[in-house]
Amino acid sequence: MRLEDMRRSENVEDRRGMPVGRRGATIGIGTIVLLIAGYFLGVSPATMMNLIGIGDSVTQGSANPAATVPTGKPTDPQGDFAAAVLGETEDVWSKYFAAAGQRYTPPTLVLFSGEVASACGEASAAAGPFYCPGDQQVYIDLDFFKSLATEFGAPGDFARAYVLAHEVGHHVQNLLGLSAGSARSGAQARSVALELQADCLAGVWAMQDQRVIEPGDAQQALAAAAAVGDDTLQRRTQGRVVPETFTHGTAAQRQRWFQRGFDGGRIESCDTNSAGSQL
């Protein structure tokens, strides 16, 4: 990626090193264990909380004073990179929405370390990056990028960018009210469809942002998509694959849907409801 050409977003809250303030419902130890287990299966905290029936009951509190949180462009390399990718997603999606006569409201990117409180409850860094629709914020402990390269075998700037673009994809879903999967599908199938659609939207963003894309970048994203496929993660963590517990899709599915978005370059490419778009 041509990092020097990327605009740094100001929509960043840097909560790294800060104590966790209470926002909304408190999640117990048992739920945290489920979230950590869900991470190794590729499940976002928001998805897991919905699946266990507490996501819709969590509301945002006011005991986490935003005035004490540093906002704006981080100055450290990892934070600067995250702000740069967020800025690119803002520029691309703002232009895309404007062309359709709509206004794009960007999410806030929250950087944290260890654990964090959100409108979706509290989560450990072990739960991985996630998007919370309750406050329209993307949350990430930047140590995840190190794990992505060393533990998951997916190094590179664009592999990291894919992770953030996927979470912003969930924000686009939220803004547009996009659905995924058949209305007759169960919760697991709908979860997989939503996650694959977010992968596809990350691909759309990448195609629309050719100004900063370099040769080989898409391959880094595909490698990252494969590394966090449900089947890949299950083999690594439990030595066997259990398809009925999938929530994000297989490595092949995640690669296919990112590529679908990249090739099509349009949101319409990401319709997982159509009969011709087998997951």
What's the arrangement of secondary structure elements?
Layout: E1 12-14, H1 29-40, H2 45-51, H3 77-99, E2 108-111, E3 115-118, E4 121-124, E5 130-132, E6 137-140, H4 143-150, H5 157-176, H6 187-208, H7 217-227, H8 230-238, H9 251-264
Parallel strand pairs: 1-2, 2-6
Antiparallel strand pairs: 3-4, 5-6
Helix pairs in contact: 3-5, 5-6, 5-7, 6-9, 7-9
3D architecture notes:
With 279 residues, this protein is α/β, with parallel strands linked by helices. The chain has nine helices and six strands. The longest helix is centred in the first third of the chain and has 23 residues, at 77-99.
* Total domain count: 1
Q: Detail the poorly predicted runs.
A: 23-37, 50-67
The helix/strand series, from N terminus to C terminus, equals: EHHHEEEEEHHHHHH
Span from first to last CA? 29 Å
Helix segment tally: 9
Strand content: 5-15%
If strands are numbered along the chain, what order do they take across the biggest sheet? 1-2-6-5
The gyration radius over C-alpha positions equals 17 Å
Record field, number of beta strands: 6
Structural class: alpha/beta
How much helix is in the residues? 40-55%
Quaternary: single chain
Shape descriptor reads globular
Mean pLDDT value: 84
For the biggest sheet, the summary is:
4 strands, mixed
